[in-house]
Here is the input.
Amino acid sequence: MRWAASLPLSGRIGLALVVFWLLVAIAGPMIAPYPVGRFVDQEVFSPLTGQFWLGSDYLGRDVLSRLIWGARYTVMLAAGAAALAVLAGTSVALFAAIRGGWIDEFISRAMDTLISIPSKIFSLVLVAAFGSSLPLLLLIAALIYIPGNYRIARALAVNLAEMDFVAVARARGEGALHIAWREILPNMIHPLLADMGLRFVFVVLLLSGLSFLGLGVQPPYADLGSLVRENISGLAQGSSAILSPALAIASLTVGANLLIDALKPGGGH
Amino acid sequence: MPGQAANPPAWLGVSRLVAKRVLSALLTLLLVSVVIFVAASLLPGDAAQEVLGQSATAEQVAALRHEMGLDRPAVTRYADWLTSMLRGDPGWSYIAGMSVRDLIGTRLVNTLSLAGVTALVSVVLAMTIGLVSAINRGARLDRALNVVTLSLVAMPEFLIATVFVLIFSVKLVWLPSIAMISEEATWGETLRSCALPVACLAFVVTAQMARLTRAAVADELDRPYVEMARLKGVPLRRIVLFHIMPNAAGPVLNAMALSLSYLMGGALVIETIFSYPGLASLMVNAVTSRDMPLLQACAMVFCAAYLALILIADIVAILANPRLRA
Amino acid sequence: MTDPARPAVEVSGLCISVELPGGSSRPIVEDISFAIPKGEVLALIGESGSGKTTIALAMMGYSRFGGHISADCIRVGDMRIDQMDAAGLRRLRGSRVAYIAQSAAAAFNPSRTIIAQVIEPLTVHGLASPAAARQRAIDLFRELALPWPETIGDRYPHQVSGGQLQRLMAAMALITGPELVILDEPTTALDVTTQVEVLNVFKSALAKSGATAIYVSHDLAVVAQMADRIVVLKDGRIAEQGEAAAVLHQPQSDYAKTLLAASQPVERAAGPSRADSVLSVEAVHAGYGRIREGRAAMPVIADVSFELGKGQSLGVIGESGSGKSTLARVIAGLLPASAGTVRLGGETLAAGLAERSKEQLRRVQIVFQNADTALNPAQTVFDTLARPLAFYHGITGAAASDRVARLLETIQLDPALARRRTAELSGGQKQRVNLARALAAEPDVLLCDEVTSALDTVVGAAILELIDGLRRDLGIATVFISHDLSMVRAFCDEMLVLYAGQAVEMCAKEAFPGSAHHPYTDLLVASVPELDSAWLASRGGQPGPAMPEAQVTGELCRFLPRCPLVITGTCDRLPPPLITAPGQRVLCHRHGKAEPSDQEHLVTGASR
Here is the structure.
């Protein structure tokens, strides 16, 4: 709590938003007022009422329930993909940085190639090739963001590997595993966590963008991007069925960004 | 100058450096083509079956497989594909029944003009915001701009687009929500119909670019040479323009190239929402219809454009660096 | 109107405080008052954190970390700095008060030509046209004894040497004829031999310009040459001030006495006489890049040999780039030698780490210069010290805690510090832990790479004292790598002088006084400033280099281009011979000859 209080205002807002959406994602099934796929309203695109807090969607389903479930998919997919990307990227980066030589050059060249394919373009190619089931989407998103994490982790690891305390460990006779795990990695944790947060935001934006285009999460599942897409016909009347999932995504990603920015050394300026 | 007479002329070193960058970019593009080809060829199931549907007979599928070249080894197919790409004829779309080249044709021009206008708007805005933030580093204005740009880069494009449509097309009825590009349209009509797509795209790109520009300039602000200049009584504005910019040119240019690459991702959503007849919406359709030759060609065009941007930024930064010219 | 008795600079009741995140403020400088008569030099001396630079910058109304400056009075000439607004301060900076920074390499903008930056104080304040400013700069370059004064300004900062850049910065400061010049440790980043030249040039340029000056430094001997008055600072307060000679020779305050004592290390008795050899280095070559026929593509050290007995200490001395740190890395195995052998006891050590046994690695320990980077900031003191105990000796659990506590006692630190993260320690504490980690291995050979250069004089002196005691008590053979001749002479039994990777001289402590030395050793000895304020002036008559433009190739003496005693036709044609005398080895054509004649040397030189 003392830690949260030390953040600037923007950071505290970000923290509150992130915690809120994490709780929604975890507790979703328990707090959703209606089953996610049930048609509960006679009307479609009905406004906010006591019965349907966020109105109903284009088929007369409860928007709040669908939003809670959508957030669950969005958060879980993005968190999984971001964690996977950082785990894989950092492991490979540590390996490359410590081995050095042609192995490092080969891996770095391969990662440079992958990073020079714009992420959304790459995701379209991969979705077209492999399909878009939930596990595949998670893997695709992770794959796309591995090279970015690799680059950052490798730069960190190479800098650390040149530090004198690593030279001391090498001169002591320590093996590569000890050096990577005990000497280098503990000093990378903070920037890596920040990077994971950023990748989380990227994945949320990527997957909801794909879903919005109808190429991401497929029915019967729906993430927040899918909710915006399926209710696009309600745009003309400014229906909450389309605005609330859009705002939900924005509050999640903006919140995460504000939090990460406040945690940076000298953050929040 | 004594001791320097033996050195080769400076332009030689620079042109060698530039040549190296060009070669490296070409190599990357080649590797990218391998990745895209491999990814697109890993189609689970059979591409020929896909085109013909479930009702096709085994003979029909085999015939189409042969026609599509799927019965030949992957390396040969890659080589053929690459050479036909290089000749400017990236194959035949079996789904659309047209050559990919004809499909891409005018749409590429449309996307390039959309991107070009957006880039122009964004660069001007972003430079202004970035420099103003950096000069006022830590002040209220900088902090406010930081929160605004930070929030904007985290906004999905479709949120900005739907909000803009809701406000400008639905409520105010000022601008059309469909971008009509046709031969007959007047300049004014074209501009009107492109206003919303450009504004939406520019929003996200500008925020990203302004942040990176500010970071590049602010990085330099802490250098001892900046303190020295302040202690010489040089005004801050002059320090930023004449002392910092020569050093920050590389990172700033790189920041711009990187942010402009956001244009491509953004264009996918924006073109689709506004039914803009560009390459990005074509690519989205290609995914939906699983039109792999078209998809591969579109992906290569975007990657080539991206690499070209980065390369140009790199070369300009090299040419702008007096230490490399001297 | 100007009263000749009125001092040119007057400061009274100066306080500088920084705002803390909570909104409260902490003073970093308190209650500073001094006055400087016109044309005199006032030195601000103190250790890091004493506030000396902060005070000096307040003369320009500038504070680095946005600190708040308040004072009863800060006056320079007729200007009240403490009452000026931002615009007024901007007009004064660079025109009437000028600043010379510690590192010219960092203070010059790397992307602009030197001349553009040197004339900027004139052009930005509208004091001269660009053409006139350029001419003024060229005149100043000539005055500051810079080579090629007409064209040197057209270069970029990375194209000139460090000593030249420092003088070019002085030109930038003096170009407007300021009333007050602030020199902030202007020679600290330079090698000692370069420092002398720069000090000489600064001194005469200041005298000629008639400017009043504030000279910030931690080095008492340098201050003795430059200052008329001295203010000694401790923790942001004045400990003592007065005439330079009085402060240096009859200090009143305890703190000034401590500082003086630490700056003049007392010579220790030599260690045990040559016992059985522990470490021997024979004809070692090393460098970076691909190795072909025993020579690296970028060679750093060439043909270095020495031997070291149990409990003895060897000082390796040389300027930056001489290869002294590389030598330590070669012995430790971090950089495999391209040729030559390193022996430990009787065993020949493999060149690389991977081929050395754990026991061999244990017996040679290296202590790096900068404890900030030598200690893993993510680990606690206990983690740092327990690892070598577990790794080499298999000591874990309660036994390890015991040993760590005892190690901390040995290096005179509170055992309670074991639980702290290394990043939380002070510079001196870190360096002690750094040392304790090496001691935990119970080594036979300790390689100390510039272990005090990142520390304040008093803290550094205590560390040296500690190492000296340990090697005598525990019989650890010690190699001190240093650029500080007086330190090496005080603490080492033998001295190895490196120049550009060549071991130009090896000399035992007892043989040092009175014997003839290599010309580079002589230059080093003559370059170390002394507390005597007449020292700098007395050094004016040093002979200049005989062949400044000579190109050194192959096996020739590397010192050739700077040597004042070159024998033309010999030194530039033949590799220098190694002359051995009792307790001394010198790599020089001149050596051992009372009245050398050129013909004679042609013969002896060829016989090597």
Remarks:
- The domain at 9-262 of chain A is CATH 1.10.3720.10 (MetI-like fold).
- The two ends of chain A are 21 Å apart (CA to CA).
